[in-house]
C-alpha cells in the first residue's frame, strides 16, 4: 500500500492532539521559568542552574529510563507521567500565589519536569510504532505531523503566550501548563492499548540498560542515525552560543532582528518536516538523510559568510529545513527497524548521546569566539557537520536501510504471534 493510500488509525489523532496540547504548555513554561527566575535573582549562575536543571535527567538517567519504559506499559507510562507533571506544576504555582517562590524550588521543578519528559518522550517514541503497525510510510507521515505541530506549538505559540500569561500573574503560566498536561493525560488514557513486548529473560535493570546501549553501538545503521544528532548538537550549540553576538556585531541587528532570525530558522524547520516524506520517497531515505546533513553544513557556512541579515535569515531557514527533515526521517526509520522490546532503550540512548554532546558544543563555541573571532565557531560548526555527513553517509546507505527494513518486516510476524500467545 502506498503512503498516500495508507490511512492513519483513529487513535493517532488523539495522540497527535495530546502531544500538541502538551507542546504548547511546554512552550509556555519554557519561556515562563527563566522569566520567573529573573524576578527572584539577577545572579547569572542561579539563572543557569534553573535552565540546566531540565536537561540533567537525560544525562543522568537516559539509558536507565529507556530500560524502565521497555518494562512498563507505554500508554500507562505516558498518561501517568503527564498527570504527575500536572500535579507537580501546582506546587510552584501555589508558591507563587503565596509569594514563597524560590530559585531552588524552580530548579527542582525544572529537573522533575525534565525527568517526566524523559519518560513521556521515550514511551511515546516506543508506542507510536505499535499504534501504526511499524509501517515505515505511516511512521514518516506521523512524525512529520508531530514534529511540525511541536515546532509550531512550542516554538511559535508557546513562548509568547508564556510571556503574556506571566504579565497576568506569576502563577498563571504554571497553571496553564498544568492544564495542558492534564488534558494530554486524559487524551492519552483513551488511546488503544498496545501489545506488550514479548517478555525477556529476567535481568537486572542495569544489564538491560547496557544491552540497549550496546545494541545501538553494534549496529552501524543505528549508530549512524545516533551520530547525526550527537555531532549536530555539538555544531548547533557552538553556533547558538555566539549567534546573538554574531547578529549584533557582524549583522548589525538588535533584539527584534535577532528574534526574526530565530523565526526564520523555525519556519524552515516546519517546511523541512513537511517535505521529509517526499524527499524520502524521491531520493531514498539514506540519500535524503545525507543530503539534508550536507545542506545543514553548507547553510551554516553560508551563515558565517553572510554579508547582511537577509542572507543570514535565508541561511538559517535552509538550515532549519534540513534539521526538520532529518528529525522526521531519522526517528521514523529507527522506529521501523528496532524490535519493540528494545525501542525504549534504543530511543533513550540516541537521545542521551545528543544531550551529552550539547555542552561540548556550547564550550567549543565560546572558546573559539574568545580565542579568534565570532565567525570562527560558525565555520568550525560547518566543517564539523560536513565531516559528519561524509562519515555517516556510508553508515546510512539506501541499501543498508532497505536490508534493515526487510529484516524487520520478516521478524514482525513471529513477534506479533508471540505477543498474541502471551496475551
Automatic annotation (TrEMBL):
Q: What is its main location?
A: membrane
InterPro entries per UniProt: MFS_dom (IPR020846), MFS_trans_sf (IPR036259), TM_effector (IPR010290)
* Name listed for the protein in its UniProt record: MFS transporter
Cell membrane is among the record's keywords:
yes
Keywords associated with the record: Cell membrane, Membrane, Transmembrane, Transmembrane helix, Transport
Q: List the PROSITE patterns.
A: MFS
Top-level division of the source organism's lineage: Bacteria
The record's subcellular location field reads: Cell membrane
Give every Major facilitator superfamily (MFS) profile domain span.
1-400
Membrane-spanning ranges: 45-67, 79-98, 225-247, 253-279, 286-304, 310-331, 352-372, 378-396
Q: How is this protein situated with respect to the membrane?
A: Multi-pass membrane protein
Annotated organism of origin:
Streptomyces polychromogenes
Amino acid at each position: 500500500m502506498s503512503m498516500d493510500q495508507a490511512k492513519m488509525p483513529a487513535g493517532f489523532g488523539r495522540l497527535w492532539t495530546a502531544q500538541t496540547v502538551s507542546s504548547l504548555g511546554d512552550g509556555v513554561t519554557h519561556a515562563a521559568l527563566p522569566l520567573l527566575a529573573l524576578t527572584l535573582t539577577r545572579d547569572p549562575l542561579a539563572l543557569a542552574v534553573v535552565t540546566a536543571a531540565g536537561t540533567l535527567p537525560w544525562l543522568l538517567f537516559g539509558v536507565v529510563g529507556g530500560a524502565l519504559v521497555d518494562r512498563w506499559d507505554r500508554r500507562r507510562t505516558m498518561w501517568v507521567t503527564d498527570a504527575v507533571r500536572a500535579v507537580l506544576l501546582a506546587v510552584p504555582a501555589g508558591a507563587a500565589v503565596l509569594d514563597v517562590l524560590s530559585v531552588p524550588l524552580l530548579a527542582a521543578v525544572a529537573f522533575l519536569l525534565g525527568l517526566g519528559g524523559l519518560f513521556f518522550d521515550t514511551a511515546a517514541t516506543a508506542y507510536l510504532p505499535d499504534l501504526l503497525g511499524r509501517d515505515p510510510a505511516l511512521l514518516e507521515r506521523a512524525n512529520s505531523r508531530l514534529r511540525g505541530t511541536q515546532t509550531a506549538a512550542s516554538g511559535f505559540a508557546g513562548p509568547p503566550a508564556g510571556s503574556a500569561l506571566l504579565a497576568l500573574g506569576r502563577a498563571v503560566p504554571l497553571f496553564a501548563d498544568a492544564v495542558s498536561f492534564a488534558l494530554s493525560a486524559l487524551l492519552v488514557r483513551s488511546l488503544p492499548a498496545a501489545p506488550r513486548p514479548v517478555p525477556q529473560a529476567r535481568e537486572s535493570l542495569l544489564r538491560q540498560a547496557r544491552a540497549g546501549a550496546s545494541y545501538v553501538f553494534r549496529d552501524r545503521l543505528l549508530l549512524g542515525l545516533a551520530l547525526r544528532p550527537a555531532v549536530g548538537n555539538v555544531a548547533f550549540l557552538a553556533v547558538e552560543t555566539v549567534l546573538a553576538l554574531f547578529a549584533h556585531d557582524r549583522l548589525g541587528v538588535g533584539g527584534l532582528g535577532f528574534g526574526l532570525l530565530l523565526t526564520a530558522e523555525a519556519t524552515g524547520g516546519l517546511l523541512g518536516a513537511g517535505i521529509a516524506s517526499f524527499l524520502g520517497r524521491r531520493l531514498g531515505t539514506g540519500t535524503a538523510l545525507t543530503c539534508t546533513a550536507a545542506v545543514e553544513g553548507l547553510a551554516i557556512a553560508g551563515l558565517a559568510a553572510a554579508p547582511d541579515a537577509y542572507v543570514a535569515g535565508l541561511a538559517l531557514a535552509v538550515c532549519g529545513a534540513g534539521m526538520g527533515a532529518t528529525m522526521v526521517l531519522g526517528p521514523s526509520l529507527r522506529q521501523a527497524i528496532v524490535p519493540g522490546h528494545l525501542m525504549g532503550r534504543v530511543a533513550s540512548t540516541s537521545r542521551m548521546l545528543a544531550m551529552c554532546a550539547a555542552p561540548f558544543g556550547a564550550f567549543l563555541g565560546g572558546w573559539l569566539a574568545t580565542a579568534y573571532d565570532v565567525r570562527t565557531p560558525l565555520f568550525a560548526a560547518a566543517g564539523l557537520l560536513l565531516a559528519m555527513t561524509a562519515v555517516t553517509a556510508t553508515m546510512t546507505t539506501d541499501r543498508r536501510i532497505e536490508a534493515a527494513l526487510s529484516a524487520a518486516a520478516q521478524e514482525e510476524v513471529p513477534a506479533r504471534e508471540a505477543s498474541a500467545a502471551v496475551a
